[in-house]
Amino acid sequence: MSMTLEELGALASTCTLCRLAAGRTQVVFGVGSPSADVMFIGEGPGYHEDKQGEPFVGAAGQLLTRLLGEVGLRREDVYIANVVKCRPPGNRDPLPDEIDSCRPYLVGQLELVRPRVVVTLGNFATRMILERQVSISRVRGQRFELDGRTVVPTFHPAAILRGGGEASAQMAAIRSDFAAVRAILAEPPPVPAAVEEQLGLF
Q1: How many Å apart are CA 158 and CA 63, to the nearest integer?
Q2: Per-residue pLDDT tens for 67-78?
Q3: Global pTM?
């Protein structure tokens, strides 16, 4: 991609490609390190995100920050984005055409940040990245190799808060998934296929 992350964000900030533009306070593009090894992808902005212009700043964001800290990561070490960049009214689920309208922005973020690991938070992000109609409860914690990246689906922090919080089985699961992400980062990065060919590994 020829533009920078900042230029893509500026383009998104005036986007009117779908109906969500009419009800937003501001576009919530993404935040974090532009060269992060890990990208977290959620569903869409909520009330607090829409007001502040930053993803995951409400209660779910506080939980995300805490989970990162438990495995030795900080928000500024990772990149955080959403499937849709504008808040759906009443925090409803994003509609298929809204997701499609926003898709180029997320694809651009992935191309520009180039993370080694992508953590999809919840059903919508997981289905979009894996391009299949999966249930998060069935695929969470698994590793998928996709376009040279490792994708690890897990529960959305908001679902943890709704589903019993600290003592829930979902909380234990998401902690396990975050630990798995940390373990992946400790592994040596894969050798690109072109380099393998040059080295005679194929």
Answers
A1: 8
A2: 999 999 999 999
A3: 0.91
Which residues, listed in sequence order, are joined to residue 84 by a DSSP beta bridge? none
Residue-averaged pLDDT of the chain: 93
Q: Which residues contact 128 (CB under 8 A, 6 or more apart)?
A: 41, 83, 99, 103, 106, 120
Cα–Cα dist 197/181, whole Å: 28
Residues 26, 50: contact at Cβ < 8 Å?
yes
Cα gap 53→78, rounded to integer Å: 17
Structure tokens at 81: 């984005």
In degrees and rounded to multiples of 5, residue 37 shows phi and psi of -80, -20
For the record, the structure tokens of 114 come out as: 């180039």
Give the integer Cα–Cα distance in Å for 78 and 38.
5
Name the architecture of domain 5-187: 3-Layer(aba) Sandwich (3.40)
Beta pairing partners, 151: 118, 144
Q: Tell me the two tokens of residue 84.
A: 């849709």
* Nearest-angstrom CA–CA distance, 38 and 115: 5
Token pair of 112, please?
């520009």
| Residues 127-158: tens digit of each pLDDT | 999 999 999 999 999 999 999 999 999 999 99
Say which residues have a Cβ less than 8 Å from residue 47's Cβ, sequence separation at least 6.
58, 87, 91
**Facing residues of 40 across strands?**
80, 119
